[in-house]
Amino acid sequence: MQEKFLMGNEAIALGALDAGVGFVSGYPGTPSTEVLETVKKYNDGSVYVEWSVNEKSAMEVAAGAAYAGCRSMVTMKQVGLNVASDPLMSLAYVGVKGGMVVLVADDPGPISSQTEQDTRTFASFAKLPVFDPSSPEEAYRMMAQAFDLSEKYATPVIVRATTRVCHGCATVAVQERRAVKPAQGFQRDTQRWVIFPRTSFLNHQKIETRNPAIGKELCSSPFNFIQNAAAGRRGVATHGISYAYTAEALSLLGVRPPLLKVGTPFPFPEDLALNFLRSVDEVLCVEELDPVIERELTYLCGKHHLPTRILGKQTGHIPSAGENSVDAVKAALAGFLSLTPSAAPALPPPPQLPVRPPVLCAGCPHRASFFAVKEAMKGRKAVFSGDIGCYTLGNAQPLDMVDTCLCMGAGVTIAQGLHRVEPDAVNFAFIGDSTFFHTGIAGVVNAVYNQHDIVLIVLDNATTAMTGHQPHPGTGKTMMGEISQRISIEAVLRALGVASVEKADPLNLDQAVSAVRRAAQVSGVSAVIFESPCIAVTKPAPALTVRAETCVGCKQCISKLGCPALTMEGGKALIDPSLCTGCALCSQVCPVGAISAPPRAQG
Fold first, then answer.
1. Which domains occur in the chain, in start order?
2. Predicted confidence band of residue 265 (pLDDT cuts 50, 70, 90)
């Protein structure tokens, strides 16, 4: 055994490797991304790793590996679970042979997501066991039990981490790595692997019998326990990272009430919870997102006619949305435990932090793409449907070019619905290259088949930028480091029957504007593919400069583009050379030609 200082996602990955995982798939999404990347980093060649085209595909290939007896893991964030829910719901009925862990990273806040959905609730809906780690150390230890439980009951098992666990760091005691378990291979059995309605009915009965047994078994899990039993008649029930907040808050308050910690919220450890409920008169449930524990304890009190009063989110004692914090939990506990506020002198309030709205990077080609479309559509009625990725930031001023954003791939289909209601508007759909492969292609098929008039703008920056520059089918590289056939977005669009497909460099403003104008004149589906690499994966050009004697201080470079490298000083535009990447878009916008690249060195 050795100790390592690890991020939570690294701990989860090493926990899977040390449990003998042999197949890992996933789709990048904050806060889950580093799990798969860490598996790749520590892979000795015995584990197959892939970034799949989307979460549904990732779930299904991992299931196939588990069918053949291999321990597999699939990784995603909570909204990715929505994409993977179709196969997962059926997989819960079919089951697996090799252990299969579904790692889902929830994002309370939300910090970088569209929703605050709680995977504990999803696990109950899917009737699948779920582990809920409270720290990187616990996340590491949970992986082995999750795989063992999966194999014992032939079911997928969810491990639900949250942002503060995923991205927190701690010293973790790491066990010696277990060798990848040899897979027995797929054994044909249509009664097991083919999901006929009769099979589903019988398997549903087995699930309903199995889950209570799992719940009883998990009562003795080291991740479920009662602390400070019989220390008072007011108790606290908590879970996950909120357990860490609660422990710290109680330490600051100097009290030790009875505490129930739930590490496996489904199937719920009822016997353990009943022992806790019978020892107290009131319970405060400290949870993030859904009141899962609160509902379960309320149900148990009703089922067993216990007079214990249950408090939490549903009673207004814990906030109904957002992250918890030590301060918030401390205040809730002080009120619940009727503690007198500390007489310590009040500290002065901290200074107000500056507002820092998110913005596209200096030199980002998406800024040029949005600006080209904006220029091309001057004087015309147009609606701009956006999507998930860096380019969602195109909604910020001064671009103001994202009118809708729902979920990955939806920009393509939202535009189609808008077109049918307002056919007099030009309906644009912006989508990134990785998202195009993720869920965009089906939307394009729908548009062509149903003869919708939309202009598809593909923002191809040659990477999955927002989540850390992972490869995708358009890059020609795989997570295993292999060179694969690069899938051409242009060829895919033409094969789907898109009426007009053009490619343009968004940093060539005249070329880009002309391409958009032509596309907007085409009936049916037309597409412009703006090709320019993300500034994080290409070498920048020399920074541009402003000739002060020529600059008239009109601020058009700033007011039209909003590039963070551009500022004003002394009534003149100024370019920060530490930020400028030399994209030269501002030089094409300047009405007096005051911005230029530095002269090249003679040699």
1. 2-186+194-218 (3.40.50.970), 225-336 (3.40.50.920), 365-531 (3.40.50.970), 545-596 (3.30.70.20)
2. very high
